[in-house]
Specification:
With 495 residues, the protein is α+β, with helices and mostly antiparallel strands. The chain is built from eleven helices and nine strands. The chain folds into two domains: 308 residues, Up-down Bundle (Outer membrane efflux proteins (OEP)); 68 residues, no CATH class. Strand 3 and strand 4 form a beta hairpin. 25% of the residues are buried.
């Protein structure tokens, strides 16, 4: 009878993986890769790393000359005239009138010499020659003033300006250097956060992975326990029919088998939920059926007997993050002090305009432009706000330094505790393995004794329950050890 039970248990254990042969099968490394490739937070950190990289390059580029070109065009509806269109000329006895269309004229005053002479010789043969001379003289004066008027008219209807300049900071109180250091530390922080997110994802995958392994093993144990009770129930029924057992014995076994039905259902539901949790982390459809490889469950990597916690802490992402924050705080203090120091800038440019002023104001596109160069010096004298900001930044840097010291102590304690927990987990596995072997032997002896009629069904069920408990504790101990191992590897930056 005992051989039948063993055969039935192993048939159940064999059928389950055969039925799952059509489903997908993933290893731990494959789950790591899927989680990393499908994690939006990991992609966000990658983009943040690129942002920090370009900010650092921009801070470096700010130290080099900045070259810029400017151009402009302006249209004016009217041109400016430096001379009036009507100009009184008392010495010549009249008013010269210029015309934009080029038809000037000259208006003689009544008391002018030509007007008096023409009135004196009115009606005489000399009147006509005098009037002709007056008109010709006025035309000469008008034409001359028209030329002056045109010469003093600026052709500014179309104005073009082009400029190419270079600005080079010579000394700005160390501002550019500190800005580059801050940007460089920010890039390191982005890189540290990216690596930390990578480790967090791997740690979450390991937790969900080994949790599913634990539930899968417990489901197998529940199936085996259920099969044992079903076989025991059948044996007790046969014993009742033969008068070798009572109905009370059968009811006890049936009740225990009912409890096993519930445990089996709970294990199946737990396996479904743990599979969905792992699928969610790996970016798989929640309804996808798959199995995982549990071959590495017993491969526990123990740490050396002595771990230099201080050296390990220096590699921790949290420690590196706070150290970079401390560097940023110190650079910010120096950046604040730059506002109290002189600033020197040098600039040079080439300017071209049309109309050009190279030889008067001319609109002929023949100008060659001109160069400019200069140095600007700014010396702060009384800037109380800058002094106060510098003092505030110095205290902020002290706070960052204190946080670094505090974090170092906490991380050292955390690493030491994880190391001790892993060593304790090793001892727990050894004890659970011994208990499991003892429970298996007790179950074997109980089954033989029951077949020989030396013990009751209740005694056999107690042995079966003890075997199930010992096997479950063994699975829990191994999964706990793997989780602690992953945690310690995360602390040691070995993921």
């Amino acid at each position: 009878m005992y051989k039948k039970v063993i055969f039935f248990v192993f048939v159940i254990a064999y059928i389950l993986p055969v039925r799952a042969a059509d489903t997908l099968h993933y290893t731990l490394d494959q789950c790591h890769q899927m989680a990393l490739s499908n994690s939006s937070s990991a992609r966000i950190q990658e983009e943040a790393l690129l942002v920090a990289k370009y900010n650092r390059q921009a801070a470096l580029a700010a130290m080099f000359p900045r070259v810029s070109a400017h151009g402009g065009y302006m249209w004016n509806s009217r041109n400016p005239h430096l001379a009036p269109d009507q100009k009184q000329l008392p010495s010549l006895g009249g008013t010269a009138i210029a015309s934009p269309d080029g038809n000037p004229s000259f208006q003689w005053s009544e008391d002018s010499w030509f007007s008096t002479l023409a009135s004196d010789f009115a009606g005489t043969p000399l009147e006509t020659p005098i009037l002709n001379l007056q008109n010709s003289t006025g035309n000469v004066i008008a034409n001359a003033y028209q030329k002056v008027y045109d010469a003093l008219t600026l052709d500014l209807e179309h104005i073009v300006v082009a400029q190419v300049g270079v600005v080079q900071p010579i000394y700005v109180g160390g501002r550019l250097t500190q800005m580059y250091k801050i940007a460089k530390s920010a890039e390191k922080i982005a890189n540290i956060r990216s690596e930390a997110k990578h480790d967090d994802i791997i740690y979450k995958v390991d937790e969900a992975y080994w949790r599913m392994v634990s539930v899968a093993h417990k489901k197998t144990l529940a199936d085996q326990y259920h099969a044992l009770l079903c076989q025991l129930e059948q044996d007790v029924k046969e014993a009742v029919d033969e008068g070798m057992a009572t109905q009370s014995d059968l009811m006890k076994v049936t009740t225990k088998r009912g409890e096993a039905d519930v445990k089996k259902l709970q294990a199946e539901n737990g396996l479904t939920l743990s599979r969905m949790a792992l699928a969610q982390i790996c970016g798989l459809p929640l309804s996808e059926l798959f199995t995982i490889d549990d071959s590495g469950l017993s491969d526990l990597i123990l740490p050396p007997e002595y771990i230099d916690a201080s050296a390990c802490v220096d590699r921790r992402s949290e420690m590196q993050l706070f150290e970079e924050v401390e560097k940023i705080a110190k650079s910010s203090a120096k950046l604040a002090s730059a506002g109290l120091q002189p600033n020197i800038l040098a600039s040079a440019s080439y300017v071209y305009t049309n109309p050009n002023v190279e030889n008067g104001i001319r609109n002929d596109w023949k100008g060659t432009g001109f160069f400019t160069a200069g140095v600007v010096l700014n010396v702060p004298i009384a800037h109380a706000d800058a002094i106060l900001r510098y003092k505030s930044a110095k205290h902020a840097a002290k706070i960052a330094t204190l946080k670094v010291e505090e974090t170092r102590e906490l991380l050292t304690l955390q690493t030491t505790q994880a190391n001790q927990k892993l060593l304790e987990a090793q001892q727990k596995i050894a004890m659970a393995r011994l208990n499991q072997r003892n429970a298996e032997e007790v179950l074997r002896m109980a089954r033989e004794s029951y077949d020989a009629g030396m013990i009751t069904a209740s005694d056999l069920m107690m042995a079966q329950t003890s075997w199930l408990s010992a096997a479950s504790e063994m699975v829990d101990a191994e999964v706990e050890a793997k989780t602690i191992e992953t945690q310690l590897r995360k602390y040691l930056r070995q993921l």
